[in-house]
Structure formats: C-alpha cells, structure tokens
Amino acid sequence: MYQERPEWEDVIPLPQDDGALPLAQIAxxxxxxxxxxxxxxxxxxxEHSERALEITEHIIEMNPAHxxxxxxxxxxxxxxxxxxxxxxxxxxxxxxxxxxxxxxWHHRQLIIxxxxxxxxxxxxxxxxxxxxxxxYHVWSYRQWLVKRFGLWEKGELEYVEYLxxxxxxxxxxxxxxxFLVCGNGQELTEEIVQRELGYVSDNIFLAPxxxxxxxxxRGILQRAKLPMSRIEKTCxxxxxxxxxxxxxxxxxxxxLAEIYSxxxxxxxxxxxxxxxxxxxxxxxxTNYWNYRKTQIQKAAA
Amino acid sequence: xxxxxxxxxxxxxxxxxxxxxxxxPPYPPPETLNxxxxxxxxxxxxxxxxxEDYTPTDTNxxxxxxxxxxxxxxxxxxxxxxxxxxxxxxxxWLYMNQLPGGGFRGGxxxxxxxxxxxxxxxxxxxxxxxxxxxxxxxACYFAIATLVALGDDLERLDRRGxxxxxxxxxxEDGSFGECLIRENGQDKVTTGGDMRFVYMAAAVxxxxxxxxxMGCREVPDFEVEKLxxxxxxxxxxDGGVSDRELGESxxxxxxxxxxxxxxxxxxxxxxxxxxxxxxxxxxRQVPFEERHVMDDEEWADILAxxxxxxxAAGVEINLGPxxxxxxxxxxxxxxxxxxxxxxxxxxxxxxxxxxxxxMDLNANRRFLLEKTRHIIGGFxxxxxxxxxxxxxxxxxxxxxxxxxxxxxxxRLDPALCxxxxxxxxxxxxxxxxxxxx
Lengths: 301, 437
Known about the structure:
The structure holds two protein chains of two kinds.
Chain A: H1 30-45, H2 50-62, H3 69-79, H4 84-97, H5 103-115, H6 121-131, H7 136-149, H8 156-166, H9 171-182, H10 190-206, H11 211-223, H12 232-238, H13 250-261, H14 267-281, H15 286-300
Helix pairs in contact in A: 1-2, 2-3, 4-5, 5-7, 8-9, 9-11, 10-11, 12-13, 13-14, 14-15
Chain B: E1 20-21, H1 35-47, H2 61-75, H3 78-81, H4 84-96, E2 135-136, H5 137-149, H6 159-168, E3 179-183, E4 186-190, H7 195-209, H8 224-233, H9 251-264, H10 267-270, H11 274-282, E5 285-287, E6 290-291, H12 296-305, H13 308-314, E7 315-318, E8 328-330, H14 340-352, H15 361-372, H16 391-403, E9 412-413, E10 418-419, H17 420-427, H18 430-434
Parallel strand pairs in B: 1-7
Antiparallel strand pairs in B: 2-3, 3-4, 5-8, 6-7, 9-10
Helix pairs in contact in B: 1-2, 2-5, 2-16, 5-7, 7-9, 9-14, 14-16
C-alpha cells in the first residue's frame, strides 16, 4: 500500500469522483483503487520521477488499456533519459502477458522510432507469433517496421514462407505476403506473377479447400490486371464440372463461375458451378449463390 | 500455373457432403430469445457493480454504459424497468464526464478536477483542462448515443466545442486519432490509423449534423473527401477492409468503414470493389463444427498442418432437413473461429448494404440462441462450455438479432447502432431539425 510507504508520504491521493448514479461502475480491488488515487495525484502534477515510473508499471499491470498512463510513462521515460533498450525489454514481458492489448504496441512503436534501430525486433515478434501467429496488433506493428526501416527484402518473404509451412491456413501470413509483393510500389511483372502462381499452386495442392491462397491469387491477378481465366485450368483440376463427384474445392467452383459468367457461350457452366455450390459444396451460402445466378441472368437479359 | 496435365492422385479430400452428418443428434427445434433472462442480465449490469474483471475497461466505461443502456432500449424495457430518477441520474453522470471546451473522457478515472487537487499542468495555455485528461473520440460517440437512448435533448451538450474537437482529431491522411492532447501549446493526436476512430468521427458528425452535414454549419466540416479516400485505400485484395492500406481484412474494420461511408453519404464512391466486398462478407459465415473429443493440442496441430481429410474427420457438421448447416455464426477474418460479435459486424455491414438476406439467417440466429447465449442471460464470445457472458458480446449478440428482426426486440439502425426510436427522437428535436448549434 502506498499510504504506508515513507517515500509516498508527501503525496495527497486523489480519489475518484463517480457522482451519485454512475454507469458501468466497477468493483475495483482496494489495490487498484488506491494505486489509481496516487497515480492521479502524480499525473495531475505531471511529476517525472522514479516513483512515477514505478506507479505507471503497477497500473499497466492491472489495466493495460488505460490510454493516458502510457503517454505519461513515455513522457517520464524521455524526460529522465532512461535507457530505451531497457524499456523495450520491459515491454517484451508486458506484451507476452497482455496479448490483446494495443497500447503496448503503440508505445513500442514510439520507443523503437526514437531508438532508430530495429535490431532484435524480428526475434521478439517471432516469440509473439509462437503464442498466436495471427495477432492483428503484432502484424500491424511488423508492417510498420518494414516500412519504417525499409525491410522489404530483408528476409520477409522467407519468413512468410516459414510461417505458412507451420500453418498453411494462416491468413495473416498470406496477407503479409501480398503486402510484401505489392506494397513497395513495385510493378507486378510477368516474372513475379509466375512466381506467385507457382507458390499458390503448391499450397493449394496441400489443402484445396483452404480459402486463403485462392483469395490471394485472385487478388494478384486483379492487381496485375490479368484475366481470372489465367487460373481456369487449376480451377477445373480441383472442380471438374464434367465429373462433379471429384470436386475438391468450393473456392475453385466459385472462381469458375466468375470466369464463365463473363463469356456468353459459357453462361450455363457458370450456372452449373453456382448450383453445385448451393446444393452440395457450400450450402450455407445458398442465398448468395442464387444472388450470383440472378446477376448473371440480369447481365444476359 | 503449374497444373499437371495428367492429374496425379490427390491425398486430400474436400470436407464436403461426406463430412456432414445425417445420423447425428436428432434435428432439434429452434430455441427462442429468453427475454426475461436477458433483461435480468442487463439490469444487473446497470444497477449493480460490475465484477473486478472489468478493471481493464476502466477508461472505456462510456462504451460499457452505452451497451448496457442500449440493450435495455432494444429489449423495450428502458422506460419500464428503470425510474425517471435513475435515467436522470445517468444523464448527469454522462455530462459529468464532458470536458471543458467540449468532448468526453472515457470515464471518471482520468478526472483530476477534484476540489482541492494540486495540479500543475506544464502545458502552457491549455484551454482544454488537463493534458492527461483528454478528449477521447470513442467516448464522445458512446456518450451521445447513450444520452439519445436515455431521451436527453442534448441541450447540455457543448455541440460547438465537440465538433471543433472532432475536426482537430483528423490526421493528414484523412483518418482520425483516439485522443486529443494539448502539449506545449500544440495539438497532439494520439494513436490512430485505425478504422474504429474513423467510424466514431463519422457517427458523431451524423448525430450532430445529419448525413449531408448541413447541421451546425457555423463550425466548418472536417475533410470528408479525404476521409473517404482513406477508407477507399483500405479495401483489401480479398474485398474486405482493414485498418490501413494492404492490411489484413477484418470484419470489425469493415463494419466501421462501411458504416462511416453510409453515414457520410459516400457508399457509392467509397468502395472500389462492391462485388468483392459482398463476396467477402458472406464468406465469413461458417458452419458450426462439433469437435470430436480430441486433445486441444492435437487438434491445433491438425488445424495447422493436417490434411483436409484429417480435419474433416475431427469434426461433425449437423445438417437440417433442408440440407443446410443448422448452426452457422461468423468469424472476423479468414480461417478464424466464429465469435458472437461478428454476427453483428458482418450482419450490420450487410444490413447497411441492404444485403442481409444473402446470409443464412436461420443458421446465424440458431448459432446465437443455441450456442453462445448464456444460461444466466447475455451472450458469450465463443460457443464453449464454461464460458462467461460479457457486456460487449451480450450487446452485440442482441444487436445482431435485432437486425434480423427477432421477435420481442426493438429495431436497430445498423449504421448508428442505436434503436430506431432513439434515432427518431433525436431527429425530432428542434435544434436538430433546424440545423442549429
């Protein structure tokens, strides 16, 4: 308790005023209520001191989403000229414990930006991904790092491939691949498109019903302004319309419907694909497949 | 694409019809919404203290307050189960959290203006109160939405000040930040590049100015075109929207983007690929999979690296007599688990686009009413044994059902996320009709 500690003797705690009829009142623990009163007293004065740093840590442990305690902490750290590397180490432990918190990542961005050095960040992110390789905040932070430090060709693509070997259904990793392939202003040359088609093909082979690589290659073709018919053969391989029993991917059927819908003579094949999706291969989306059929019919009329 | 001209035998099979069970448990009749139980849950949330687990939401109490009051509003019990004194008291509490100069804080935890407090704000010329007690944009939206639900006329709201603050929260790229802090005589917009704050800014603008932005013209509008451009750039390669250019599409971000566009009257030009957006939205619905008993770790391995045959063998999907999955909720990102709140984020977005009928409404309804509702009222995040209901998922579950016109619930405006009555009451206020400040 702060009130029993001599180094806090001079601080007059500021209790919370919740009014007469509060909404969403929380049954705070005594520990939190007291620490918050002392934190308010220090923040009110904008005190930059060791004890202020200590109390920010205490509050962050109990309530990492407190949006100004982080700002206060950053001001103290910079004002006292603290070792920023130590701050990063401290943050590592917090981030591993509070995975869903995003203030931690904002604070990290502030510190790393000031340090102007991303050494060690990839290793730490790998640790975070061991716990959850789809953590949205961590991916956002990684993309900031890539842009801030120009890491486009520093092993990023290889890292994505490593993560997809661990889990081919990790859509965050697929999305990061798109960011790397298209995010640096590079042109999607035929060579790159070929490379991506090959990579996607291998991964679809592993799990034809995994939507991620199908969405990914649609995106690449759209971006390169190439027709979807570039993957028609792959689609018919996983969804042979002349042998419906052999169909192995609803996503292949979906893309086939898209390809055939643009060709008047093949409209019937498009309708057949959508019917198969609706009746057998993806019945939860029946209303949607029927809507697509209506659109084709409308376009023909 | 390297496509073998002579197909080699595939080791994988589609979890298609073979994975669907026809001799599973007998087809159960649908359950209905247990209104008394949900009411009890929400009265507990509004009239007694929340447990200490809510401590990490201490600076977002406006959000929790809004969900609690709005839930009672959707259940149609706000007037009957709370007294005029209680409602007036809550209104006072909301205004207690209004800051000098306009805007709201997220809760009393950051209030330093307590009589006798010794403050020394080093920020010279700070007209807005203490720098560590800043305007919080989500709090502004949630406070107004709650006030409107409680029937307040917003006469005590510093509307001019609030609109000015919102303008100052806009960033160079058109997006909005979370908090406005005055430091060393300068505005500092903290955190951002986040679609949530974009939505909050658009919603506050609508609530005070209407869709065309005609109301309260004495304060200039923020840069709507820039904001629309920001949203447009965040549509991903798969059709969904993320928090920034080339991020991973996410249902929460997609709702925020589409709702913001609709509130700004820019649905037509703010989405570059409408067909892909609709496709992405409906693809988020996933059949509920009954997992066969298997060690959690073992199952995680199969999910990551297992073949589709192994994956299909581990679960069972129950089909109804119509051949469609009985239960089917929504996930927020491709290849993730279904979670109650995404029934709203996706349902709300489809509703705004007038495409709600494209989802399997029956499967979604049954997922909520039979898999994630809690026995004591409210909804859990996931359909898991031993889960607990929480305010966010309990409100969004109800809101998702309201969008689907569940019997016994009031109707919800999908973009503002307040009840239709609350919206109509706001629009009937004299100052609102006259577009005055």
